[in-house]
Amino acid sequence: MQLNGANSGAVPAVVAATTGAAIATQTFSAVNSALAGANPFSVVTGTLPANITLNTANGQLTGTPVAGGNTNVTVRVATAAGNVDLPVQIQVTLAGAPVVAPPVSANATVGQAVNLAFTASNPAITAVGASGLPPGLSFVITNGGTGAVAITGTPTQSQAGGNSNVFSATLNATNGAGAGANAPISITVLPNVAPTLTGAVTAFSRVFYLKLVRLAGGRS
User: Residue 70: which residues within 8 A CB-CB, separation 6 or more?
Assistant: First the structure.
């Protein structure tokens, strides 16, 4: 079997790509034998990277990779003379450091669980960092391979500083190309129970009661 007209034999044929960019046309073909069946091409060992597909009819490998790293697969072609396998290594280079994409703002309540999910570009994500989050919340990786990240936890405090309940935080993520820039997010944390003026209400009720008694001609 050949890839782009070159026969690699037992040595893996290399497909080079970059995250976020469509791979150049890659075409597998049989050598000195007619193809067998309507869909003679298949992947028999390993799994193609996410967003990369093999056209089983014409042997073309296409797509835009979303995660970096090397992937080893074996592509098979069915011919009139039998099956022929070719080892292939798909080498995907990261386009750059990850960019975290949180919402501009979010709301939370003391004592209530938070799970705010979003993504970071150019996975795989290997580490994340945060500063300024409300106490009780953390920035975590939920699936480094896809770039899935989240702010999770349960807020324990609604006051950020002074009389403000708005926490201004920054988030960042790291992949094989390095750490990305900080991304801002503002999180407003509300108290779990609204404050009450118990003493003032009791005093008002006492005065109101006395007035009713006097209007009725009674004593208190």
Answer: 89, 90, 91, 92
